[in-house]
Amino acid sequence: MAIEKEKLLDMYRTMVRIRIFEEKIAEDFAAGKIPGFVHLSAGQEANPTGVCANLRIDDIITSTHRGHGHVIAKAGNQYSLAPMVAELYGRKTGVNKGKAGSQHLSDMDIGVLVAEGIQGTALTLAAGAALTAKLRGTDQVVVSFIGDGTLNTGRFHEGMNMASAWKLPLICYCENNVWAESTNIYDVTNLTNITDRAVAFNIPGVSVDGNDVLAVYKVAAEAVARARKGEGPTFIEGKTCRRFGHFQGDTHLYRSQEEKDECMKRDPIPRFRKRLIEMKVLTEKEADKIQQEVQEEMDKAVKFALESPFPDPEEVLTDVYA
Amino acid sequence: MKEITYQKAINEAIDEEMKRDPSIFIIGEDIGKHWGGSLGELAGLFDKYGAERVRETPISETAILGGAIGAAATGMRPIAYLYFDDFLGVCGDELINQLQMKYMYGGKTKLPLTITAYIGAGLSAAHQHSKCLFGWLMNISGLKIVAPATAYDAKGLLKSAIREDNPVIFLEHKVLLLSRSTSQIPNEEYTIPLGKADIKRGGSEVTVVAIALMVHRALAAADKLQEKGISIEVIDPRTLVPLDKQAIIDSVKKTGRLVIMDEEPKTGSAAGEIAAIVAEEAFDFLDAPIKRVCAPDTPIPFSPVLEKFWMPDEEDLIKAINEIM
Ligand SMILES: Cc1ncc(C[n+]2csc(CCOP(=O)(O)OP(=O)(O)O)c2C)c(N)n1
Q1: Of A64, A253, B102, B311, which is most buried by a Cβ count within 10 Å?
Q2: In whole angstroms, what is the distance from residue B11 CA to residue B40 CA?
Q3: Cα gap A37→A44, rounded to integer Å
Q4: CA distance A34 to chain B (A)
Q5: What are the tens digits of pLDDT across the range B169-227?
Q6: Torsion, CA A195, CA A197, CA A203, CA A206, rounded to 10
């Protein structure tokens, strides 16, 4: 499958945007500038990037507590990072008016239905969104991003079963970074291949290297095409790893140094950069320029956030009902 | 006597009880090998009691609570670590339909079961990780509810909860769990019976009933009002079910005024229940309307500025008291 040059460059920029976003947030969180809890997706960028490159703006995703990358990838590079950053800083100009924060960063204008903080629920909400597409006869697709830990919630099974029984246009994309907080997925399931879960729903279950954006793109393209044609759900596992702890402040001592080093080596961004250079889609100089442009974009977004006022306290009382 | 944090108090209570009774086990997420509970309050128990009795689970609240109920009904004495009380919705059936087993089946089964869960706002954790579901839980029959405000109370009440032959939910405020401040407890073993309120500060003009973290805010407000010559009695019910009605009514008989401070939306709150009890049973002793200092009827926002507005604080309490003086 040939991917247009423009799309390849777009995907590269998306991954760089996510990484720079996450690293800056890590720094500012450590400096005490960001309230609440922060869960970063650095290292997992290829997953949302490869998936969302197949989606339209009117397609829908559900995100998670580790969701900044999903939102950035779904929005596309033309969308400003500023309202997202402002949300994390709890500002009035935040995309969720300061009511969501890092864990729930989402934006229905770009098709991010929720960033779910209660594991598992998202699958059922996603099934509902996919039902809307079916009932209204649109060819929209819904992708529910989840982590490996979420596979063990009852709601995962209920949502997937319903989607498969009704042939809903739903893709469950599981970013398998092996860890759910301090719990290893293989210690709390009797599985060696998590795609075996798809067997129970009689739907395709595909495993992919979640640190290879082109591989993710390809697998997602097939799943999206199936869903758009009304052929029902697909379950995808992206094998990946997180560069940071579960949340910022987690020392992740439950991971061996070896495993962490290995994760650093599997970095999807230099890997894609090298690939694009080999494909002659990108030069070193152009890649550096993208890096620098994104850095400037992020600096501006942070400045915007810091200069934005906090919400008016009375805002607490708004948006409770339609 | 010794100084102890709220977190350590919880740890000691579980440790002492597990040592005493081999039928006790803990079941929940991230409670073992590495984390000892997400806020660290279970640290060391896994090493001491092993993986059989400190059972780490997948993310499966329904099976955690359902499993604990099944085990309790058949001879074990489980502690279900439910993590945040916001996750209780995941096991809603177990809470509202299954905990009532003894009643439904002619009294033949008992459920010696403790549920622990973090509660409360103040950490900018947003709506899905900040609630105090007191009123919601009080409406569930067959469940006892403990919400301690100090380390001393936490330890004594948790030991009693574990020894109860009924389901008890033990609610731990996150701000208190993360606090380094300590309270004095005896070196020797002690327990505190469920259903006994504690007068945290004696006073003569206004009764303030405050729950969990709000006890500390009420005490701070009482100090400020004392300077202005207003004498506040602060009552900490400690357990919401059973509720020590008598202690509250006795105080109101003395002061003639009642304010209830409760960190949850006003509608359907524990504060509403307490107000109703006093209106029903001690109306003649009231010299002023009962006031409820609660959160607004909204979800809980993330931004610290919004969250601060949402949470009841000293100023809200002082304002309410001034209105009835
Ligand atoms: C129902 C529920 N139970 C427990 C939690 C606490 N919790 C937050 S994140 C997390 C681990 C999630 O792991 P996974 O789904 O693998 O996603 P990852 O963090 O690896 O991205 C847990 C247990 C929660 N948010 N919701």
Answers
A1: A64
A2: 9
A3: 19
A4: 10
A5: 999 999 999 999 999 999 999 999 999 999 999 999 999 999 999 999 999 999 999 99
A6: -10
For residue A253, what is the nearest residue in chain B, using CA coordinates? B34
Instruction: Judge: domain B198-324, CATH 3.40.50.920.
Output: yes
Please state whether the predicted TM-score (pTM) of the whole model is above 0.90: yes
How many structural domains are present in chain A?
1
A320 touches chain B (CB under 8 A): yes
CATH number (domain holding residue A137): 3.40.50.970
- Residue to mutate, A38, A104, A119, ligand 1, most ligand atoms under 8 Å from C-beta: A119
The number of C-alpha atoms within 13 Å of B12 and in the hemisphere containing its C-beta is: 22
- CB neighbourhood size of B251 (10 A): 26
User: Mean pLDDT over residues A78-87, rounded?
Assistant: 98
Domain B2-185 fold: Rossmann fold (3.40.50)
Residue A195: domain span: 5-304
Which residues in chain A have Cβ-Cβ distances shorter than 8 Å to B310?
316
Q: Check residue A2 and give its pLDDT.
A: 85
ipTM: 0.96
Is the pLDDT at A4 greater than 70? The verdict is yes
Would you kindly state where each structural domain of chain B is located, as residue ranges? Answer: 2-185, 198-324
Distance CA B136, CA A320 (A): 19
Q: Phi, psi (5° rounding) for residue B169?
A: -105, 130
A317 falls within a domain? no
Q: How many CA atoms lie within 13 A of B224 on its CB side?
A: 15
Paired tokens of B161: 């909860």
Residue B71's SS3 state is helix
Amino acid occupying residue A40 = L
User: Hey, what are B77's tokens?
Assistant: 């004495």
- Is A68 in contact with A21 (CB distance < 8 Å)? yes
Residues A192-219 have pLDDT tens digits of 999 999 999 999 999 999 999 999 999 9
Q: Distance between CA B99 and CA B82 in Å, rounded? A: 15
Identify the helix (H) or strand (E) that includes residue A173: strand A170-176
- Centre of ligand 1 from the C-alpha of residue A252, in Å: 15
Q: Which residue of B has its CA nearest to A246?
A: B38
Domain for residue A313, yes or no?
no
Per-residue confidence (pLDDT) for residue A1, from 0 to 100: 65
Tokens of B140: 């569930």
| Distances A148 to A70, A124, A169, A179, A193 between C-alpha atoms, Å | 16, 16, 21, 7, 11
Residue A155 to residue A165: CA distance in whole angstroms: 15
Q: Using CA atoms, how far apart are residues A65 and A41, in angstroms rounded to an integer?
A: 10
**Mean pLDDT score, A272-294:** 98
| Spatial contact of A237 and A174, defined as CB atoms under 8 Å apart | yes
- pLDDT of B42 above 90: yes
